[in-house]
Specification:
Blueprint lengths: L1 E6 L12 H9 L3 E6 L12 E2 L9 E2 L1 H14 L4 E11 L2 H8 L3 E6 L15 E4 L9 H12 L10 H4 L18 E2 L2 E2 L9 H19 L11 H11 L4
Helix pairs in contact: 3-4, 6-7
Length: about 240
Amino acid sequence: MVFDILTLFPEFFSSPLRQSVVGKAIAKGVLRVEAHNLRDFTLDKHKTTDDYPYGGGHGMVMKVEPMAAAIEALKAQRPGATVVMTTPQGERFTQKTAAEFAALSSLIIVCGRYEGYDERIRSFAGREVSVGDYVLSGGEIPALAIIDAVARLIPGVLGEPESSESDSFSAGLLEYPQYTRPEEFRGMRVPDVLISGNHALIEKWRRQESLRRTFHKRPDLIEFADLTAEDKAFLEELKRGKS
């Protein structure tokens, strides 16, 4: 899969994209990530990418001409690419969104800056996403988050494909508690079921702990989770305080 990042700060991505899972996938050729400098698509000698807003107001607005030229140039190279704008006004980026993006062959991620985009830039984008309800200085950090989340779902990126399936949000629930050696640390023991060798009981315990954790920490997720009759019965016990 190919990720093209359109940004004013291409050097921002140099170190993060050499690290960990994404860095290894790029080195293996499973992923390709290219950061493009928006200033290379400007139309004046000063390489201007922003200007004062019509109607007055604070701050600067990203200009439409260089952004349109950049997107069109990248789309010409990758005709099937989906253009994604990072913006607080976008849909919430979730694991479901990541899975949708992972099914694509190419993404062009547009990183915003200043006080936002000239509204006409939106006509060049296929999707708009937000990584959360808070303010960042620009779209570079969201772009990295999108790439990392999507990359984990692409075959060949993770050493064990099953790893992504048990991650939080993959099944619509938070992940169950995890333990490793030592068996006891400062009086805190690994639950007996995990060292019982009974895989059916372990799977049941993990499912119930995932439900329990989601119920207490992110109850909003339960409404959209794929639940069995047994899951629903366990949740009813949690609501009555019996489990």
